[in-house]
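Note to self: keep these together.
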Amino acid sequence: MQTYVALLYSIILGEGRRVVMADLKAMAESLGLKNVRTLVATGNLVFEARAGEVSKLEQRLEKAFEKTFGRHVDIIVRGAEDWLKLAAGNPFPAESAEAADQVAVRVMRERVPEEAAASLATYAAKDEKVLLVDGDIWLVFSRERPSSRLLAASNHKRMGVGTSRNWNTVRRLAEMVGSRQ
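Structure:
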């Protein structure tokens, strides 16, 4: 058995249609996934499954989500080793220690090309940062602005299928999968 992390993209479905984590856990267990756990109410799953192609796991989870909740949601899956590597590769350790909720990584289904990530820098304010690490996009957002052009620019349309998690979530998921290794 292999430990995996699954990240659901934007599961807030509107008033009265919020996804309850117990229901999400039950959906994953109905697929035969083992030791299913959730982290925070934003669509983070940790589970065990037979080692196999990540893309097949993503497809199974997406189909089950749509059947269970009536809406398609992109789901990004990473193996435990890959998640631990992602967390260890945080290029902004000082910023993460100071303001973990302002540091995020956009975890991508497909690696982002260098030139696409570089184009994001044009949207960054003076106190914001962008770095590409192993195909995922790391960002430091400004505390001074309520909204960031950088966040809006790092969307599906421009960068491809992915979902963002702040450093607190990345670290906590790493702790969860690290304890299962």
